[in-house]
Design a protein that fits this description.
Elements (H helix, E strand, L loop, with lengths): L10 E5 L4 H12 L3 E6 L2 H13 L3 E6 L5 H15 L4 E4 L15 H29 L2 E6 L12 H21 L4 E8 L5 H10 L3 H7 L9 H12 L10 E4 L7
Parallel strand pairs: 1-2, 1-4, 2-3, 4-5, 5-6, 6-7
Helix pairs in contact: 1-2, 1-8, 3-4, 4-5
Bound molecules: nicotinamide-adenine-dinucleotide.
Nicotinamide-adenine-dinucleotide (NAD) binds next to helix 1, helix 4 and helix 6.
């Protein structure tokens, strides 16, 4: 796909860059000229994504980074700034789900794991990204929330609560940092064909895929490319007055 965006020499940091949205976003931002800092808990897989980008003439560094670990996030952002001299765009994308169960059947470990990555992880990334962006006097942050952050999600209550939290972090930071020339927004995808969704559908078995498609106003799942194109638009320089926005990318699901 040809990109219509120009991110020449902009430094873009992406978490969860080894798979799904993060992996394709890394490729598309690289094709648009960005210099990339790619982090993931899966060190080998994120290195492979960076190697592929470098093999086609792009610039990418890869680093093992568990977003739920303060020191690893601080080191990841510091390495990005040491390598490229700045950080223009932070895409806080790493996220996990949890077993589909009723709330009373979930336990403390489910809470700690899910919200450690999905909510605390976004806070930690924002903390260190914003520290650098305040110093620079400019920046863009895009948090990957979910349609589950806009509505209740039966059997995924902890995932839903964490994604609601990401939206709270996004809106609050937009109000705090807008005057510093830093834009903070969130996207809310639903059921796009990434490994996260495909694995969960496999685990559910039966007619889960058909049910999901039937329940969506557009009667289909989302393509990963559709989400990544919205990421490029959200972060591009021309989109300069969008701040504190929470953008559903869900075929209309959250409109119901
Ligand atoms: N796929 C969808 O339909 C969908 C819908 C709504 C929201 N989302 C959100 O989009 C984001 C990306 O999801 P995806 O569907 O591409 O999933 P994915 O499983 O394909 O990719 C997620 C990546 O995050 C990495 N990761 C997991 N835990 C991590 C941690 N602690 N630190 C750093 N990296 C970690 C994984 O190794 C993986 O590479 C997530 O935040 C997810 O909640 C996805």
């Amino acid at each position: 796909m040809q990109t219509r965006y120009d991110f020449t020499d902009q430094v873009v940091l992406i978490t969860g860059a080894a798979s799904g949205f993060g992996e394709l976003a890394a490729q598309r931002f690289a094709q648009a000229g960005a210099k990339l800092a790619l982090g993931d808990i899966n060190a080998d897989a994120v290195q492979a994504v960076a190697d592929k980008i470098k093999a086609t003439g792009g610039e990418a560094l890869a680093m093992a980074c568990d977003v739920s670990n303060n020191d690893q996030v601080e080191a990841f952002v510091a390495t990005c700034v040491k390598t490229y001299g700045r950080l223009d765009i932070g895409i806080n994308n790493a996220g996990i789900s949890h077993p589909k169960k009723r709330l009373h059947q979930l336990d403390e470990a489910n809470w700690d794991q899910t919200n450690g990555v999905n909510q605390k992880g976004v806070f930690l990334c924002m903390k260190y990204e914003l520290t650098q962006m305040v110093e620079q006097g400019a920046g863009v942050i895009l948090n990957v929330a979910s349609a589950a952050g806009l509505m209740g999600s039966p059997f995924l209550s902890l995932y839903s609560s964490g994604k609601h939290g990401v939206i709270g972090l996004t809106k609050s930071a937009a109000l705090e940092y807008g005057k510093m020339n830093i834009r903070v927004n969130a996207i809310c995808p639903a059921f796009a064909k990434t490994p996260l969704v495909e694995n969960s559908l496999k685990a559910s078995g039966g007619k889960s895929r058909e049910n999901l498609m039937a329940g969506n106003p557009m009667k289909r799942l989302g393509e990963v490319e559709e989400i990544v194109q919205a990421m490029l638009w959200a972060c591009c320089k021309d989109n300069s007055f969008m701040n504190g926005a929470v953008v559903p990318l869900d075929g209309g699901l959250a409109a119901s």
